[in-house]
Structure formats: C-alpha cells, structure tokens
Amino acid sequence: MLTRSATVTAAVGLHARPAAAFVRAAAQTGLPITITRPGEPAVDARSLLAVMSADFGPGCMVELAVDPASADSDAAAAAALESLAAVLAAPEDTAQAG
C-alpha cells in the first residue's frame, strides 16, 4: 500500500463543498483510494457519503492510501496521492473551484 499523510485545511473540514471537491478529485484518479484518521477505519475517498460521515474536521491529519498495483505505475499512484493531498491543503475558496 502506498500512503501519503495530509492535513484538512478547509474551515469546515471535509463537509459540503470541500468534501465534494475532494471526492470529485479522488474519483477522477480512477484509482481505489482510501482516506482515514489514525485509529479509525479507512473509507473510500470516492464516496461523498463515506467521506462526510467520517467527519474529517478542520486541521485533521489524514492518511491517503492506494494499492500501487491498481495504477499503471508506482509513479502514477504516488502522483494521485500528491494531487489529493494538494486538494486537502488548498484554501477553502480554491477547493470549491472546478
């Protein structure tokens, strides 16, 4: 499993628009990416309901994960995680665009 730590920076956490932007970006990777907090079960990052139900609040440290075998290459899997970490780190007004 390839993993990447990130911080949720949106003032409302992963709720409403920031959650929708994150889930849309996760779905666009085409990879089965998960998101979790330490000590909690992982949820499908492509599921808006799962992400919003997991209650990833503002400032929350999360771990993104993907099985590299599901990607064309390890580099593609790593790039997908990096792009999602960037979505989580983007200011809320930036995360809402797009």
How would you portray this structure in words?
With 98 residues, the protein is of the alpha+beta class. It has one domain (2-96): 2-Layer Sandwich (Histidine-containing Protein, Chain: A). Helices cover 42% and strands 17% of the residues. It has 4 helices and 4 strands, in the order βαββαβαα. A 4-stranded antiparallel sheet has the order 1-4-2-3, covered by helices on one side. A hairpin with a 6-residue loop joins strand 2 and strand 3 (43-44). Helix 1 (16-29) packs antiparallel against helix 3 (74-89). The protein is globular, with a radius of gyration of 12 Å. Residues 94-98 have low confidence and may be disordered.
Q: How many β-strands, per DSSP?
A: 4
The shape, in one word, is globular
- Uncertain segments: 94-98
H and E order: EHEEHEHH
Architecture in CATH? Answer: 2-Layer Sandwich
How large a portion of the residues is in β-strands, by DSSP E?
Answer: 15-25%
Distance between the termini: 29 Å
CATH superfamily: HPr-like
Outline the biggest β-sheet: 4 strands, antiparallel
CATH fold naming:
Histidine-containing Protein, Chain: A
Structural class assignment: alpha+beta
Number of individual domains: 1
Give me the Rg, rounded: 12 Å
The CATH class assignment is: Alpha Beta
Overall average residue pLDDT: 91
Please count the helical segments.
4
- The strand order across the widest sheet is 1-4-2-3
